[in-house]
Amino acid sequence: MADIYDIVVIGGGAAGFTAGMYGARDRRHTLLIEKFAAGGQVLNCEHIENYPGFPDGVAGYSFGPMLQQQAMNMGLEMKMAEVQSLQLDGTLKVLQTDDGEVRAKTLIVATGSSFTTLNIPGEEEFLGNGVSHCASCDGAFFMDQPVAVIGGGDAALDEGLHLTQYASHVTILHRREELRACQLLQERAHSTEKISFRWNTVVRAIEGEGTVQHIQIEDVKTGERSQLEVSGVFPFLGLTPNTQFLNGLVPLDERGQILVDLCMRTATPGILAAGDARHASVRQLASSAGDGATAALTAIRYLQTNQWEG
Ligand SMILES: Cc1cc2nc3c(=O)[nH]c(=O)nc-3n(C[C@H](O)[C@H](O)[C@H](O)COP(=O)(O)OP(=O)(O)OC[C@H]3O[C@@H](n4cnc5c(N)ncnc54)[C@H](O)[C@@H]3O)c2cc1C
Prior knowledge:
The protein is of the alpha/beta class and 310 residues long.
């Protein structure tokens, strides 16, 4: 029979490692399961400027290992595996991974979310080198340079407006003729001189040498192809929370994010969520770390009292 952990955390991002650190520091038998690499989404971020305690910022690829080291110094165990499904066995949470079964008294889901991808040449190659999913994180790298935003929803317009603080021009490319974004954002975007729109347009390739220099675009109505000179490409086609493996055992909102209360508790006793995967997350590192701490402290209280209500 596999070990039964006090706390199992799924996801090795800011939320997960913070939760794991708090669990291990309280001397709870705590395991973190990560499928890819320590750090989560922020591994793609060239320079993190807004995480407290780093006055000169920190590179994303350094930040992840630092999170991991600090948590493991406290005694956190880590397993590299992908969690594929969740079941309940009485009060125990049973996870099937691609490397065996894991059983836990409490479970903290910190699996973040993934950007919907374009699946075009150059997208992966230039991620962090001209392709970004975070205007507030990376916008300043495109000072006085032209950028493209892809999408027609709130995120695309919101981020496009934010980028006008830095970029010389923001072209918003949308595959339809009408935006999905709320009216207020549409009005703002239309009245901002630095923003122009390309309707009925899709991006076929992102190209450059070392960094992004231009994109190949196509008018979906006429089939006409052309090249647009840009230094940055910001695709905002939506976010998909990584919650599919929960098998309906935890209530989700309409977007697939995990519903939690202020203590990060789900409706299922012993299961908590933290970070980008939870409902109404502001999707920042600092808030994700805060969620992780809250979730772990709530899990510890549950282990002590067996009470799920506040
Ligand atoms: C390019 C980029 C730049 C950013 N820059 C900044 C910034 O400068 N400042 C800032 O505050 N925020 C920034 N953000 C946002 C920030 O990265 C997120 O808010 C934060 O990473 C969320 O942390 P998390 O721990 O909730 O999730 P994630 O960081 O998404 O971590 C989730 C982890 O769970 C793992 N996982 C998922 N499913 C499974 C599974 N089934 N089994 C095992 N493991 C799984 C993933 O591999 C991942 O490592 C940026 C985001 C991006 C994409």
